Amino acid sequence: MPSVYVPENQPDQPESTTDAETTPLVFPPLTHQRLENCSFSSWYPAFRSFSIKSKIIPLSEDFVSYLNADKVFIPGQSGISLALSDDDDSDDDDQISDMEKFKALQEATHRQAQESDSDSEDEDEDEEAALPYFPELEDEIARTIAEYGGEVFPKLNWSSPRDASWIATTNTLKCHNAADIFLLLKSSDFIAHDLTHAYEDCSDESGEAGSGIRGRPEKVELILRKWFDLAPSMEFRCFVRDNKLIGISQRDMTFYDFLKDIREELEEKIVDFFEERIQGKFPDPDYTFDVYITRNRERIYLIDFNPFAQKTDSLLFQWEELLTSLERLPLRLLPSEEAGRHMQQPFAFNRYPSDVTDLSNGQTVAEFAEAFYKKVQASAV
Questions:
Q1: Angle (CA) 27 38 200, round 5°
Q2: Region (Disordered) spans which residues (predicted)?
Q3: Rounded distance, CA 56 to CA 298, Å?
C-alpha cells in the first residue's frame, strides 16, 4: 500500500493525474525462489550470530491440517478441545468489573481440560479420538520456552500472527505455553495466508504473474523466538536494490520526537551494519530487511527479510521513489504527531474479525463478552 507520508520540505503534489498514476511500477519478478529465500529457515542459519535466538520446529501434516481447519480447537494434554466455560457464579458478578469479566473470558481459552458428561461416556471417547492431540510438539515447545526464559514470540515460515494479538490476554505475541501459541496461529489471517496463498503473487521464468503452481510451502515450520521487550521506536525497515541500500524507514508509524536528534547516528549505524553484515551475503540483489537498534544504540539485531515487492509495506516511502532513485535516500522519520495521525495504523482493517466488531457495536465490555461467548458456543455445536 502506498505511503501517505510527504517528506519534509516537499511541496504537495497537484491533484491532476501524474505519470506515476498512469505508468505501472515495474518490480523485480517475484519468483518462488525469491520468496523462499525470505523464509526464516532459509536465511537464519547464515545470520544467526546477530539475530534474535530462535528455534525452528518442523510441523507435521496433521498439525498443518489442524491449523487449516475451520473450528478453533486448542489441544491439551488430555486431547480434549477447549471451549469457553459456561460456569456462571452470578453471585460474584457485581464485584467484578467489565474489563475483568472480558479478561476472564479470554483466559478461559487457555484451560487445558473439560469434564466429560458421565451420561455419554462412550460418545465422549469417540469425540476425543477425533480431536487434535500433538503431545510431541507440545513437549518440544515447552522445552524451548523453558530454554528461552519462559517467554517466546511465534511465527511460521514468513509471517507472525500479529493481526491476532487482540485475542491474547496480554494483547501481544508473548507466549508462555503451547496453548498461547496455538490460539494465536489459529486466529491469524496472516498465518492462514502463508498456509494457502503464500505464492499467489509469484511468477515463473516467463514472468507471468500467478503462473506458479504452489499454494503453500513444502515444509511448514514453527519458529519460536526468544522474547524481548523491544522498543517500537527503534525498529527500522531497509530497502535494498541491486545490492545497494537505497532507503531506511522508521518501522512504527508513531511520532517519536527524540529520533530526530539521533537521526544521523542511526543512519550511520544501519549503513555500517548493512555493509559489514548483510551486503553480498543474501542470495538476491533486491530485498528488504528489518533491524532493531538497542536503546543504548550499541548493538543492532537483524529481525527479518522480506521481498522487494509491492506486497511488502513501503512504510514512509513511495515505491516509485525506491524503484527509481539513483542514490540512497535519507533515513525517513515521521516529522510530527500530525503526520503520524494521517498514517494508516497496522492491521486497521483486519485486526479484529468482523463477527467481533459486529457483536461489539454499541455494547459495554460485559455485554460484548456475553454476546461473544454465545457466538463461540453456538459455532462449537
A1: 60
A2: 1-24, 106-128
A3: 28
Asked if 53 and 148 touch (Cβ cutoff 8 Å), the reply is: yes
- Alpha-carbon span 56 to 197, nearest angstrom: 22
In the block, which residue shows the cell 513511495? Answer: 318
Per-residue pLDDT of the chain (381 residues; tens, 9 = 90+): 444 445 454 434 334 344 445 578 889 999 989 999 999 999 999 999 999 999 999 999 999 999 988 765 555 533 323 333 334 444 444 444 444 444 444 444 444 434 444 444 444 444 443 456 799 999 999 999 999 999 999 999 999 999 988 888 778 999 999 989 999 999 999 999 999 888 888 876 544 554 555 777 889 999 999 999 999 999 999 999 999 999 999 999 999 999 999 999 999 999 999 999 999 999 999 999 999 999 999 999 999 999 999 989 999 999 999 999 999 999 999 998 887 776 755 544 344 444 443 444 444 444 544 555 455 455 544
DSSP 90: G
Closest by CA to 278, choosing from 254, 259, 309, 303, is: 303
Residue 354 falls in which region: left (phi positive, over 0), alpha (psi -120 to 50) or beta: alpha
**Beta-sheet pairing, 287-293 with 235-241:** antiparallel
Q: What domains lie within the chain, and their CATH numbers?
A: 55-87+97-110+125-198 (no CATH), 231-342 (3.30.470)
Q: What pTM did the predictor assign?
A: 0.73
Smallest Cα–Cα separation from 73: which of 216, 178, 191, 169?
178
Secondary element (H or E) of residue 241: strand 235-241
| Amino acid at residue number 367 | E
- Alpha carbons 161 and 178: distance in angstroms, whole number: 14
The continuous run of DSSP H or E covering 87 comes out as none
Q: Is 237 helix (H, G, I), strand (E, B) or coil?
A: strand
> Hey, how many other C-beta atoms are within 10 angstroms of the C-beta on 84?
19
